Amino acid sequence: MHIRPAAATDVPALTDLYNHYVVHTPVTFDIAPVSPENRRAWFQAHPETGRHRLLVAEDGDGGLLGYASSSPFKDRQAYETSVETSVYLAPGRTGRGIGAVLYGALFDVLAGEDVHRAYAGITQPNAASMRLHERFGFRPAGLLQQVGRKFDQYWDVAMLEKRFGER
Ligand SMILES: CC(C)(COP(=O)(O)OP(=O)(O)OC[C@H]1O[C@@H](n2cnc3c(N)ncnc32)[C@H](O)[C@@H]1OP(=O)(O)O)[C@@H](O)C(=O)NCCC(=O)NCCS
Fold first, then answer.
1. How far does the centroid of ligand 1 lie from the alpha carbon of residue 128, in Å?
2. Whether the predicted pLDDT of 74 surpasses 90
3. 134 belongs to a structural domain
4. Any domain includes 7
5. Ligand 1 pocket: which residues have CB below 6 Å?
6. Which of 97, 35, 39 shows the shortest CA–CA distance to 65?
7. Residue 44 placed within a domain
8. DSSP H helical segments within the chain, as ranges?
9. Any idea what the CATH number is for the domain that residue 62 is in?
10. Range of the domain at 100
11. Angle CA(92)–CA(93)–CA(94) in degrees, nearest 5?
12. How many angstroms separate the alpha carbon of residue 98 from the centre of ligand 1?
C-alpha cells in the first residue's frame, strides 16, 4: 500500500468510491450520486499544502483503496483552525487496517499545520468508524438526533472532536 496526495487522475475512481456510499448507505447524507465535476471541484479545494488535504491509498497496481480528507468545518473565518475529517475505503477493502493507516498519515500531515480542532460526524450506527476515531483521540462532542433523512428514515449523527496538542 502506498499513501500520497490525491491527483487529478484519481477523480474518476474517487467519484465511484464515494457514490457507492451515497447510493447504498447512510454514511454520507448526499442522496443522489455526485458527478465527476463535483468531485473535481472537491479535489481542487484540497491542495498539497495547508489545512485542507486529500490523501489516497493505492495498492501495488495503482488501484484506489481509499481516501482521507480534511475540509473546512464551516466557512466563517473564525472557524479556520477547525477542520472536518473523513475517511472512506473502497468497498471490500474495509476491516484490514487501511483506514487506520490513512487516518494516521492525514493526522501526521495536519500536525504540521495550524489546526486546533478536528470534527467528524458519524451517522449511527457505524462501529468501525467510531472505533477508528476513538483510536485517533476523538471524543464525543454531542449527538444530533434524527438530523438527517435518507432512505425514508431519520438518522442520528454522533459529533466527535479531536484536540490537537492534547490527547
Ligand atoms: C470506517 C472505515 C474507514 C474504517 O477503516 P477500516 O480499515 O475498515 O478499519 P480498521 O481495520 O483500520 O480498524 C479500525 C478499528 O475499528 C475496528 N473495527 C473494524 N471493523 C469493525 C467493525 N465492523 N465493528 C467494530 N469494530 C471494527 C478495528 O478492530 C480497529 O480497532 P482497533 O483500533 O481497536 O484495532 C472503513 O470501514 C470504511 O471505509 N467504512 C465505510 C465508509 C465509512 O463509514 N467511513 C466513515 C465515515 S464517518
1. 3
2. yes
3. no
4. yes
5. 21, 27, 86-89, 94-100, 120, 122, 126-129, 131-132, 135
6. 97
7. yes
8. 11-24, 36-44, 98-110, 127-135
9. 3.40.630.30
10. 2-117
11. 100
12. 9
